[in-house]
Amino acid sequence: MIHKYKWNVIVIGGGLAGLTTALHLASNNFSVCLVERSEYPKHKVCGEYVSNEVLPYLKSLRIDPFTVGAKQISKFKITDTNGDPITATLPLGGFGISRYTFDSLLFEALKNKAEIIFDTVEKIIFEENQFRVTTQNKSVLLADFVVGAFGKRSNIDTFLKRKFMQESSPWLGVKAHYDYDFPDDTVALHNFNGGYCGLSKTETGTVNACYLATFKSFKKYGDIEAFQKQELSKNPFLDKFFSGAKPLFERPLTISQISFQEKKPVENHIFMVGDSAGLIHPLCGNGMAMAIKSAQFFSEMLIQLFQKGEFDRTAMERQYASQWHNEFDERIKTGKFIQRILLNPYLAKAGFAMVKTFPSLVPKLIQKTHGNPTE
Ligand SMILES: Cc1cc2nc3c(=O)[nH]c(=O)nc-3n(C[C@H](O)[C@H](O)[C@H](O)COP(=O)(O)OP(=O)(O)OC[C@H]3O[C@@H](n4cnc5c(N)ncnc54)[C@H](O)[C@@H]3O)c2cc1C
Questions:
Q1: Where do transmembrane segments lie in this chain (predicted)?
Q2: Is the shortest distance between the CB of 199 and ligand 1 below 6 Å?
Q3: What is the count of structural domains for the chain?
């Protein structure tokens, strides 16, 4: 199929970052085309705890996760590898919702406002001040602006020869839903050698268990069941969970080659939002909020510049990159610091002892990995 049409903006990838950008711009009279490679609804590897910092913005887009049953979460529990717990009240709190439902909620809000094409983008060429986007099914789409919202790792990263693709990314993510008695208002983070596992409730009342592990720690076992039984279950909380919880998926979802290397928020004139621009360590529970927030400030910038009639591409790229770094660099840096401590048995022991002596450190660290709510 050859399908040529010119849009103000093409958004590549329909996860939270892409759907939010498309919805914000399409609601402000931009002609928007979103290209997503797979249909909704779908499960994704994710901890499914969303920070409340994005609630006022979602409300301004008429998205309310509580209408589909999201659970309000206000408490945090963390255990060390021996299962020794520390509890805290979350400074801002959040909500539990599956990606299956959250992404679909945004898709439903968008579907009559923008063109949505289910296809895989293969090439993005920028020449003579416009973009030409080519898909696997041979559609050719033209636009003034392209937003890259294609997630952690995509064929487009290879096409663009992005630097992080050449470096090793030895992380594995695993997720599944379970039937298990667990409090609605709590998000838990349980450590094990080589990783950590998050537990929280979703809108259906099921418990989402999602963990991140180094490939090195996983490789000794080679399969997920053995890894969970023999490594994760050394933590008594995880032992109790995995021996008592009833799995609701035929098998857990997995992703590998997760990279936390630095990325650029603008590459080849493409404005990157969400994980395409950079990743925070999942233990912070802030990746989805960052995806939504980057969509927000990119869209606000574009709308403002269109209203003023200012289209200096170089200035826009500089402004977006600078805003991205101002918003997120500190969160990412703090996330890296916490991750380094948690995954080193000696540092983790000292860290837990310190936090037990000074419990106010927990909400302070959480605050440093989160932003403030903005409309
Ligand atoms: C183990 C783990 C646990 C996590 N837990 C949490 C948590 O509890 N809380 C939190 O806030 N964050 C968490 N995160 C982070 C969060 O999942 C991400 O930050 C978030 O999904 C980013 O959204 P996104 O829209 O940028 O990317 P995605 O949701 O990955 O969306 C990208 C989309 O692009 C599409 N795509 C890719 N390539 C193409 C192409 N060529 N053509 C068309 N479409 C394409 C994909 O199909 C996909 O739908 C976790 C991450 C991991 C790995």
A1: 7-26
A2: no
A3: 1
